[in-house]
Fold:
Amino acid sequence: MCPRNSLAALPWFHEALPRLDSPPTTAYPRPIMYKHRVIDEPGRRLLRMTVNDSAIEIAVRPHKTLLEVLREDLFLTGTKHGCELGECGTCAILVDGEPVLSCLVLAIACEGKEIRTIEGMADGPELHPLQTTFADLGAAQCGYCTPGFLLTAQALLDENPDPTRQEIKNALAGNLCRCTGYLKIYEAVELAAKRMRNGSDSEAKR
Amino acid sequence: MSEYRVIGKPLRKVDATDKVLGKTLFADDLIKPRMLFCKLLRSHIPHGTVGKVDIGPALAMPGVIAGLIGEDLPTTFGILPISQDEHALALDKVRFVGDPIAAIVAEDEETAEAAIHLIQAELEPLDSISSIDQAIRTPEPRIHDYGAYGNIHKLVNLEFGDVEEGFAEADHVREDMVFFEGNTHLPIEQHASLADWSPDGKLTLWSSTQTPHYVHKALARVLGMPAARIRVIACPNGGGFGGKSDPFNHEIVVAELARRTGRPVKITLTREEVFYCHRGRHPILMRVKSGVKKDGSITGMHFQSLLDGGGYGSYGVASTFYSGALQTVTYNIKRYKFDGARMFTNKPPCGPKRGHGTPQPRHALEVHLDKIAEDLHLDPAEMRLNNLVPPDSVTANYLKVGTMGLGKCIEKVIEGSGWKEKHRKMPHGRGIGIACSSYLSGAGLPIYWNSMPHSGVMLKLDRGGGVAVFCGSIDIGQGSDSVLAYVVAEVLGIDPFDIRVVTADTDLTPVDLGSYSSRVTLMSGNAALQAAEKARELLAQAAAEKLEVPSGEIVFADGRVFWASDPEKGMSFAKAVVAAESKFGTIGTVGSYTPPRSPGQYKGAGVGPSPAYSYSAAIAEVDVDPETGIVSARKIWIGHDIGQSINPMLVIGQVEGGVYMGLGEALMEEMAYRDRVNIVHKTPSMLDYKSPTTHEMCEVETYLVEDPDPNGPFGAKEVGQGPLLPTIPAIANAVYDAVGVRIDEVPITPEKVLRAIRAKEKGKDPRIGPTKFPEPEWSEPLVVPPPWEGGDGKPVEKKEVAG
Ligand code: FES
Ligand code: FES
Structure:
């Protein structure tokens, strides 16, 4: 290696050499100095509901869906979306224990309701039995459809602790999963149901 | 007894707990202070020139911050160096309905959406092209001004031995035509990207991409910035299947908008936009002609593919080669000729979907073989078994086959399904069919020419005993993060759940080319193995010195580093790191992987080679309702030659997912377009684009065939794509067994089945499928004699014939 001090004696040393790779963008446009204009927005409405056992009060735009309010106003991004048109089941959450597509409900229609999202499925550090079996049996591949499946399955098991394979299929028919081919999901639901029936998981019922 | 403690065990994925808690952050889950939202104006016409695009009225809207048009980003890009044919926003032309024209960024999504409608874009319609046939017949107007000629993007003509000679030598020659309609990935996660610009002139892009490295390159090119100032972070993908493998317009647009506004900019595509982004399965019209001996051995095969490429190049040149490449790695083919042509049409661009360019020809081939077996009065399963490519051989087109477990796969499914008792023996309406396939464990050559590794891994060991793995690979649900952890854990004898995995961040992680071509387990797995072995060596030396035993006798297991002869004589893993760090300094190691060279030396030989081929055999049992034509799969038995499962639970998950996707492609999924002029997608929604729900999905019985491949980490081969391939032809062959009609057109919809059944009842040809094969002007084939004819992998020089 050339010692530094001997380089300094060379004629080119005191000028910057041109870059060999793509030129740096000194000419990138300056950030646009925009005028901050408040968007004309329709009045917000006060909404009270219980989300994952916490009473909340929030001012929402009246045309916002529950999905949008959960994700964008409450930062509960565990609820996912695949279509926002009620076609894929990805955004399923529980409203008063019933599975509901949150992309199809207006948030203000949930006044006074009890909402449960994936963030409220585990009991503190204890996973819900369905969460455990989904993780252990490979029922979540990319995991994007998983919150919707888990909550829909929870509603099923709350109602029917010992579903047949066909009943599981029926309950989950509105949820699309592109990764698993559903089979590992059935197995996970069945194993969780069995564990919940045997009461081997103390937090089985919520 | 397995010799491993982690490898081969059905462990939870390292990220599974996050996923079931909804904690995994996908691209659209990212929120930044002062974040802006972007929307794109997309073309509503399939083909046209772009005149003035006036975003002024949109910019005047309260809440709108900035906008972009084509001129703002004039540099082209594209995934392949030979097809840099896309603009971030249409500059001169739009080439399909959905081609982006302008972008608006605003304080919120609704405002951006509303502002889009205020943009005035002058589009002058041009004649549009909607099919393969039309593309061949219509050289003008050209959709692109590059390519083979007219609207033919790419021509491939390869000849390995004289097929005519093969046909002459045959006892039977058969020709079939099959059409495979295009379909799309439909990942449940819509594409999303977030860009942020820092005041020191650096850009960060978070994106749902399978190929952060290529996005990095495209951003540097289009934005004219040094790559060193760009950081691309691929977020976990909510499914990819190939659909997030191209650099996309929206990624470049939000990057530029972040640069201009100095604020974070996010875009999330609507589901309809995802349909128009596409890059999915190419529709391919295929003609295959084979000469066979009485025992079904193939004396010569001529395969022709015409691909409907859509509006841009994307991976299309590779897809074209792929549609002719892997026919040869399953059954012995003595002479092989391939002609492929890809057309430009005014549809969303096609690209790679699970199996990239190979499921269509595989389908045609396996249906063709089913018909040949019937012609020869042979059992189709036996016929396949008797003609397998031997392990450790080179095919006619110079693909090097290593381990080859297809025979075992076939035997497993024959036995499991009760094939012998069922084939041609079940009542009308119920049928069974078989098909086989093979797929790459990563492509032998990179997308852009270079001699650097395809995958790199860095390992950092902390004196507290912590191990961090850094790798450019991106987990798209297949479990690549877990594979890295399992491999390192196995070598270092630690718990995979103690390992920190950092992936897919161009600032932090060494390059991995991306999650495509089923390359990640083999390539990043090998790189991880190498890095871990180097670290192990350092720790072993230091520990041996402390323990005063030979370093070759040091064992790593269960978080301990100890002498093989006496586990008591040892120390904790953390202590071993301390010893090593004291001896050598900071402990960090690297590993990298470059695939072996392949024997083919002709132009095009770069597509098809792989360090290892996986093999699959599937048997499908179906019910066909003769009254409605509805096909329902009862059960699919599938054998998959995985080499060695790194985690059998994840392997089976991939098999089931592949079978599921194959089932959807076989029976219902199609990218269909409305009318010949406007070429609007018929079903750009999840409701209308039919994909299997729990009701359509059938039972799957998986058999894993394990015969470790010397090129794979611990012997592992791929599973992400292969099992999709045999599913589709197995179903088609089962439909024939059930009701005696051939639907040589995928998807096999009830309407087609019913039409064929009605024809059969009337004594007409009970086949639905293409009858015409439009011929483009093929080029002179490249002639490469196969190895057994004295070839050396190089083309023979054409002698000029004197006038
Ligand atoms: S996002 Fe609600 S059903 Fe698809
Ligand atoms: S796990 Fe990926 S969509 Fe279901």
